[in-house]
TrEMBL record:
This is thioredoxin-disulfide reductase (NADPH). Residues 9-18 have a biased composition (Basic and acidic residues). Transmembrane segments: none annotated. GO terms for cellular component: cytosol; mitochondrion. Residues 1-21 are annotated as: Disordered. The active site is at H510. One of its GO terms (molecular function) is glutathione-disulfide reductase (NADPH) activity. Its cofactor is FAD. It comes from Cyanoderma ruficeps (rufous-capped babbler). Belongs to the class-I pyridine nucleotide-disulfide oxidoreductase family. Binds 1 FAD per subunit.
Length: 535
């Protein structure tokens, strides 16, 4: 068994305080200079005498911290409760929530590790002598990533202290609409009262409970980023963001990696683009088990995990053994312990998520919710942060600005990245009818791929526009290197209502991949070859 869970700092979900923190001397020294945090008013009293805070935020992740810090800027008395329930495998982490600890940050850094592997291959075509065999050491990568994440945990604590936001490392639970209780690490009951309460408790990975052995032997993304040793030969079940991104970097660092996909990849995304993403991953070395459903996981004497699944196309039962099985079958909110029913906060009975209106208000006046815990919102860090900040500004800064969830750009950090903003082609057709939209597209070759002799078959972009005179851009989709960087800039234009003629008047930057967007002229309707030729 190659897997290790050495990162388990505290099984009770309380924060690590005694871990060595290499490269953090500066942060620690800075922390020492800061005065000790003020005693929490109302904390530990065990009873509720007057409201102690203007705002209490439950959940110290992307949305919660942004909201708390913004509220503190207005001179309000603010507290944050954050508690990490260890994963079923015992992995836990510090302040900052999913993005910092088990999401965007470690994922992007491990994606970078994989990109460097590809760059090493390219480098030889550019004259670099790299002695063979080249191999990757998981523990070195993991140590670097984990140290960086720990520095972010410290950074968040420092920021809260600097902004005079009281931090409770406590799992909160409502006892009445203005009161939240929880136990400290030492088992002491803490009661916090506040005029306004924001719930920002995010979600956690799901396990397929109908698959025998899933919980006992499988891990999730909550564990992967904290493994001390390589996961080895890995099966990743699921075919959305988390699955494809993790399978992509595992393949990229040289691990034998398989994705089990029961239906389509990247449901909800433009399906032409999604197919190109998986096609590229297959050419990159990731194996795909299509239309397959896991049925059980067993541990062999060798400590390997034997997985059995049904192949729906062949109507057969198949097995293989892996060092690690990772479930990437979606995420679920954990609202049970919040005691929401007692205070009357309504949730969607199917998803368990909190129902909010456009102002992030729940069914209870003065209780709000932001981020992944809310029904119908994108599960993305920038939307959680923006929603949290705007909420604080409305609560305390006399603002009335609402969060605009339209045209939110996003990127799937697969080995060949896919970035997009706006409508997919399917959604545009559904909304406006195929006669009313025009799709401009191009297959292009990044200049850097030429000397390196890299295959560019899946480097593709398309712009979905209205067909009427103004030709407003409805969606932009880009597969290629640095897709996130490319789409971020164009997202501004699309947010501002950019049109196809305006895009054509935009001067490209030569030689880049992004400039191809400003040159898109072949329509899908024309049936002409969309391959970009020449310079
Ligand atoms: P979270 O960040 O999840 O924070 C919630 C916090 O509340 C947690 O610390 C939790 O432990 C705590 N908590 C829960 N219950 C309680 C309680 N009762 N009391 C006290 N504390 C509690 N998004 C992107 O934009 N870009 C990416 O590249 C990206 N990559 C991702 C990769 C992975 C593998 C995953 C899983 C997610 C990724 N995301 C990405 C999504 C992003 O991480 C989330 O959308 C974002 O973190 C949501 O923020 P949040 O504030 O809603 O919740
Ligand atoms: P999703 O809910 O998006 O996808 C779940 C996947 O698992 C789907 O492919 C689904 O298949 C499959 N699945 C569900 N149940 C089973 C089962 N029992 N057996 C086999 N397969 C199953 O979840 P993710 O965890 O991938 O992502 C959650 C959210 O996190 C995303 O929506 C995204 O907003 C955010 N995120 C953002 C990232 C970024 O910005 N780069 C990166 C990672 C996450 P089917 O389609 O058939 O239902």
């Amino acid at each position: 068994m190659l897997r290790g869970f050495g990162a388990r700092p505290a099984r009770d979900g309380s924060e690590r305080t005694s871990d060595p923190l290499p490269s953090l001397e500066g942060v620690i020294a800075h922390l020492r200079l800061l005065p000790p945090p003020p005693a929490a008013p109302g904390a530990g009293s065990g009873s509720c005498r007057g409201r102690s805070y203007d705002l209490l935020v439950i959940g110290g992740g992307s949305g919660g911290l942004a909201c708390a810090k913004e509220a503190a800027q207005f001179g309000r008395k603010v507290a944050v409760m954050d508690y990490v329930e260890p994963s079923p495998q015992g992995t836990s982490w510090g302040l900052g929530g999913t993005c910092v600890n088990v999401g965007c940050i470690p994922k992007k850094l491990m994606h970078q590790a994989a990109l460097l592997g590809s760059a090493l291959k390219d480098a030889q075509h550019y004259g670099w002598n790299i002695s063979q065999p080249v191999h990757h050491t998981w523990s070195v990568m993991a140590q670097g990533v984990q140290n960086y994440v720990k520095s972010l945990n410290w950074g968040h604590r420092v920021q809260l202290q600097e902004k005079k936001v009281k931090y409770f490392n406590i799992k909160g639970s409502f006892s009445d609409p203005h009161t939240v209780c929880g136990l400290t690490k030492a088992g002491k009951e803490t009661v916090v009262t506040a005029d306004n309460i924001v719930i920002a408790t995010g979600g956690r990975p799901k396990y397929p409970m109908d698959v025998a052995g899933a919980l006992e032997y499988g891990i999730t993304s909550d564990d992967l980023f904290w493994l001390k040793e390589s996961p080895g030969k890995t099966l990743v079940v699921g075919a959305s963001y988390v699955s494809l991104e993790c399978a992509g970097f595992l393949t990229g660092i040289g691990l034998d990696t398989t994705v089990m996909m029961r239906s389509v990849p990247l449901r909800g995304f433009d399906q032409q683009m999604a197919s190109l993403v998986t096609e590229h991953m297959e050419s990159y070395g990731t194996k795909f088990l299509k239309r397959c459903f896991p049925t059980k996981v067993e541990k062999l004497k060798s400590n390997r995990l034997q997985v059995t699944w049904k192949n729906a196309d062949l109507d057969t039962e198949e097995t293989d053994s892996f060092d690690t099985v990772m479930w990437a079958v979606g995420r679920a909110p954990d609202t049970k312990t919040l005691n929401l029913e007692t205070v009357g906060v309504k949730t969607n009975s199917e998803t368990g998520k909190i129902i909010v209106d456009a102002s992030e208000a729940t069914s209870v006046p003065h209780i709000y919710a932001v981020g992944d815990i809310t029904e119908g919102r994108p599960e993305l860090t920038p939307t959680a942060i923006a929603a949290g900040k705007l909420l604080a500004q409305r609560l305390f800064g006399q603002s009335s600005e609402l969060m605009d969830y339209d045209n939110v750009p996003t990127t799937v950090f697969a080995p060949l990245e896919y970035g997009c903003v706006g409508l997919s082609e399917e959604a545009a057709v559904q909304r406006y009818g195929s006669d009313n939209i025009e799709v401009y597209h191009a297959f292009y070759k990044p200049l850097e791929f030429t000397v390196a002799e890299r295959d560019a078959t899946q480097c593709y972009m398309k712009m979905v526009c209205l067909r009427e005179r103004e030709q407003r851009i409805l969606g932009l989709h880009f597969i290629g290197p640095n897709a996130g960087e490319v789409i971020q800039g164009f997202a501004l234009g699309i947010k501002c209502g950019a049109t196809y003629p305006q895009m054509m008047k935009t001067v490209g930057i030569h030689p880049t991949c992004a400039e191809e967007v400003t040159k898109l002229h072949i329509t899908k309707r024309s049936g002409l070859d969309a391959t970009v030729t020449g310079c």
